[in-house]
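Researcher: Please predict.
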Amino acid sequence: MDLTKLFGVAGKVAIVTGGSRGIGEMIAEGLVTNGVRTYITARKADACDATAERLSAIGECISIPADMSSAEGLAAFVGAFREREDQLDILVNNAGAAWGAPMGEFPEIGFDKVMDINVKAPYMLTQALLEPLTAAATSDDPGRVIMTGSIDGIRVPVGDNFSYSASKAGIHMLARHMAKFLTGRNITVNCIAPGPFESQMMAYMLEDEKIRASIERTNPRGRIGTPEDVAGTVIWLASRAGAYINGVTIPIDGGISMLNA
């Protein structure tokens, strides 16, 4: 019951997709700070390299830029990772995209792009990494797959991001479905569903002081999420303390999702 052992993740190996910015960067920083050798990937190489350089001042962070929306990009990333590592303890499928347009004007490409990046890519990446995920997995310390969903996949969003909400609801169910089939291999699959955080995806709203104040006022916790909120949840799921959690979606939103559940 020693807390350093119960919640410790030092010595593990992790991948965080979309790890160059926003919630992915918050998660990566939390893992790196606590002794996890962390690989981050993002489509923009300069941003990915810059984040890895910054986090390398704290611990081990390696940049492998890749376009996870294409089969070629995903395969290149997996190959580069496998050249360096035989074992993967934590896979955080965080990379995502959004698209907004009024109903009646929503383009097909807006659905395809979002569903490919937010749903298909996490599944295909997990499938491609099953061997390293099982390499050191045990009953007490399984391989961990953590999917980033959203409260927009739980409640009806206020905006016209139709493909985004559908993709995140899909990720929540995909996590449950994969959890059922992978638990026998000592791999758990869980999902986090963030609410408002300081991320580029929400920047256009949070930079407006009136909108930000409204979001904070309607949040039961009265604030925006912090890096500690999301990184702490991921570390818990990745530690011995979270080894018995499987197939669940955890809202990290201050209680917003329960207001109109």
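Model: The beta strands are 13-17, 37-41, 61-63, 90-93, 143-148, 187-194, 249-252.
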